[in-house]
Design a protein that fits this description.
The chain is α/β, with parallel strands linked by helices and about 170 residues long. The chain has 5 helices and 7 strands; from the N terminus they run αβββαββαβααβ. The strands form 2 sheets. A 5-stranded parallel beta sheet has the order 2-1-7-3-4.
Length: about 170
């Protein structure tokens, strides 16, 4: 995602993994790479127009802290996009999904990978009151129309792409 966005925006990619399976895999000089974690972003306050948490927020140990950090680094009126993180109706549905995830990873001999999986509930996202979340489902309605009020007017907007999780 960082490489795709770098064609139109200034992008900062963040991951706890600075090696070949993390930040080192981004071989694009247009992308600034920063090692860090979601709950303690090593980024200046109010320095980004958008934060994209791509397939990562459900691994945060402290979701409210991760949301607070995203809010801290966003400029006023900034946009947080949570993509590819499952959101469950309630804690029970999340627990069932976690059990399925544990079984899946155990079958492949990598059970510890599921230990970080938390999944999200809508209450966890809405609870801190830092953002107004809009659910956009691919293929149903126009996601572009849903995001239009938050589109950055400048092509030089700073967009961090956050990957990884706190260790």
């Amino acid at each position: 995602m960082a490489r795709r966005l770098a064609g139109a925006f200034r992008v900062t990619a963040l991951d706890v993994d600075g090696g070949d399976t993390g930040l080192g895999a981004i071989e694009d000089a247009r992308v600034l790479r920063v090692a860090g974690d979601l709950e303690a972003l090593p980024l200046r306050a109010a320095s980004f127009d958008a934060v994209i948490a791509a397939a990562t927020l459900h691994y945060a140990l402290d979701v409210p802290a991760a949301l607070a950090e995203a809010a801290r680094v966003l400029r006023p009126g900034g946009l947080l996009v949570v993509a590819d993180s499952p959101v469950y109706a309630d804690a029970g549905a999340r627990a069932e999904a976690w059990e399925r995830t544990r079984a899946h990873y155990a079958a492949f001999g990598a059970a510890p990978l599921a230990d970080r999986y938390r999944g999200l509930t809508r209450n966890e996202l809405d609870g801190p009151g830092l953002f107004r979340f809009v659910t956009v489902t691919p293929g149903f309605g126009s996601w572009r129309a849903a995001l239009r009020p938050w589109q950055a007017p400048r092509r030089d907007a700073r967009l961090p792409v956050l990957f990884g999780w706190k260790r």
